[in-house]
Amino acid sequence: MKKITFIGAGNMAQSLIAGLFKDETSLTICVADPVDSQLERVRKHWPNVVTHCDNLQAIEKTDVIILAVKPQLMQQVCEPLQNTVQQMQPLIISIAAGITEANLSQWLGGNLGVPVVRCMPNTPALVQAGITGLYANELVAENQRNLAESILRAVGSTLWFETEEKLNAVTAVSGSGPAYFFLVMEAMQATAEKLGLSANDAQLLVSQTAFGAAKLALESTDNAAELRHKVTSKGGTTEVAIHELIQGGLMELFDTALHAAAKRSEELNN
To answer: Is 100 helix (H, G, I), strand (E, B) or coil?
Structure first.
């Protein structure tokens, strides 16, 4: 029976816990957080989870430590764990953006190093519909890699990357990506209301259309461009709308936006 310890009991940690209990009941799950109200939420939903206010107590005899704290708190959380982590050599999984594997290894053991998997999940993980980019350092064993993947699959799909730098692109595309789609949905809903629809009707139409389009893209063998062409009849309403979007520079705007996000992710890593 594997023991998984979460340090931090925020939304992402709770989403992972929910997914793990849905998929796997043979785990021992422990959560540490200095805020008792957060722990109370965990206890209320998952009575079998062991909770602690003390991180060192929480990580005793653990197989996996999932660091689910804010990036600016990571160093002060990691450094007191150094001796225990070096003795036990558990798998370290970090879901904090902008904290490199090198930083985590230094804070948790200096030159000795630890097995670290960096993850870049996105917010749809909160409803078990996310996608997570993963990178493992050279100290991560194959069974630990498989374990990390199974944990993150509890909240959606996973993709491995062989270089840590690729996580900057992952951040730009999928980490920040939900906000891009929300912005498009926001614009469509606003215009739908100008066209005479009620706010509730506009929201439902746009949300269900976005969901259906994403589901179709996932289940089809066609790429996005091919799917777009299939629903764009010559001389029809879709064609004139797509023409306006492309002529307005939509493709170039997305290219500029994602490059800016990737650059910012790289800056945060430094």
So the answer is: coil
